[in-house]
Amino acid sequence: MSHNSITVNGTEPNTSGDIAISGRQTILIGRGLQSSYSNSPASGFSAGSTLYFYDTSPVNTIPNATISSSSGWVSSVTLPAGDYVILGYFSALFSSSGSLEFVWYKGAARVGNGAVIGALTLANLDGSRLAQAAVTITTTSTFTLKVLSSSNVSAIASQGNIPSEESWVMIERV
Questions:
Q1: Residue 32: left (phi > 0), alpha (psi -120 to 50), or beta?
Q2: Is CATH 2.60.120.40 the right assignment for the domain spanning 26-173?
Q3: How far is CA 112 from the centre of its chain?
């Protein structure tokens, strides 16, 4: 009999042979903590810019998944092979009527449906306020929420705590 030859949802038994089953495997980032967006590594809101989420202790119950962060500001999530539902919401302040469109990227490739927030939420943009993707990955992959387009989004220095308090990511292994 070999040790740790059985796993359940990627979880190996402990030294007593017990396997902890806690339900769904989930990552949750952004739970209303306060930090000014000017403290994040963000460089702006132009197309291709990474959006950052603030959480000093994100929930991660997906074995072998990693969360990349700096001083509590999360830039990306790396997931092992599997099936996932990935959701992301970002909140920002605007200097006047405008919009912010964002979408998930797997490496350099856009995945899922984008989202748009702001006063110009027209149907010809992706239409939802929630960026979402259902993905099957066969190898470890990194996911990042990035800006597609923006109009009249206030400067990073003017964002205050709004992005940290209201933005979030939830990933569930299915």
A1: left
A2: yes
A3: 13
Give me the tens of pLDDT residue by residue for the chain, a chain 174 residues long: 455 556 655 666 677 665 665 579 999 999 999 999 999 999 999 999 999 999 999 999 999 999 999 999 999 999 999 999 999 999 999 998 889 999 999 999 999 999 999 865 444 444 578 999 999 999 999 999 999 999 999 999 999 999 999 999 999 999
The type of residue at 167 is S
